[in-house]
Amino acid sequence: MSAVTLRSLTKRYGSAETLAVDDLSLDIAEGEFVTLLGPSGCGKTTTLRCLAGLEIPTSGEIEIGGRTVFSYESSQFVPPEKRAIGMVFQSYALWPHMTVAQTVGYPLKLARTPSSERRQRVDEMLERVHLQARADDLAVSLSGGQQQRVALARAMANRSSLVLFDEPLSNLDVKLRHSMRTQIRELHDDLGTTSVYVTHDQEEAIALADRVVVMNAGQIEQVGTPRELYANPRNAFVADFMGFQNILPARVVTISAKTAVVELDDIGARIEMVMQNEHAPGDRVLVAFRASHVEIVPDDSPSEGVIAGRIRHITYLGMSLRVLVDTARGPVRAQIDERDFGRYSTDDLRTGREIALAISPSQLVGLPSPGDADHSDPVSSTVTTRVPA
């Protein structure tokens, strides 16, 4: 039995019938940690709020632990307080007049848990989030990271089998986000809960989840383990969101076994790549690759399999260099790790320098092309380009 089942879930807003969630179906197993990943407006938070009972879906069905909590056909709707779930909000949602201990114990008080057991559970949760010493302080007097730990303890104090997270770390600095996501995953594992976590941060999604659900325009684009989505995105939208900084249009030239030679549009460069989908010569594809998989090679390297370009900009990031290279087709992003800095002289890496780029065939991913127009950019209408180097 699935811990959570969503069937044909649809949510519309307003007189304009804005479609926020579009016929979404998903099964989440008991004890699984699932992240809903996508840009603002993709429907991930609305899906979570429907699951929590904070929004009433337009149609569809929701089951939690085998119990129907919403059904359009049978006109069922179980209110949030009767769904036996915990929820951690982005804004912490702490009460200004309550101490830390009172805040964590409030769900237990509502559930009429005996006072002795309530104190025991509050002490246990505060120990887990390392806030025993702050039990009698007002919750809102704590730092942002401590407040989020209070919210986390409150959500889990009632030992709910399902805990929902609505971008809980987005207000924290980078160091706190890293430590908090470790704590969230450890609590999930220790308490054996089922967790559904909303985020727009692909690194966060990969670090936390057993499975990632990539959403776009109210629909699911792809579901898989972090490794599956990281290595084998289904389309350009997923590839971009999973950190493929380069997505270029191309045409298949030849096919042999599991590899193909493709020609990049306007660049003329032919490169070999491993094909994950069936294609035929003449097919249009997109070629996706990460900046970290691009190697800068001598500019007199054989033209077969390399991309010629000119360095536009270099950004020093401490442990790496980001190099933005202008090519005939547009910008390509490369990354040089700190351990490889010594391979390049100052003259090798300077603005305006003509260089050549190479990528291993095994690190190229072939994606379906959304259009066949020879001189249009099929990526621009599908992918939001990330911050350049």
From TrEMBL:
It comes from Microbacterium faecale. Keywords: ATP-binding, Nucleotide-binding, Transport. It comes from the Bacteria. Residues 366-389 are annotated as: Disordered. Residues 378-389 have a biased composition (Polar residues). This is Spermidine/putrescine ABC transporter ATP-binding protein. Transmembrane segments: none annotated. PROSITE patterns: ABC_TRANSPORTER_1, ABC_TRANSPORTER_2.
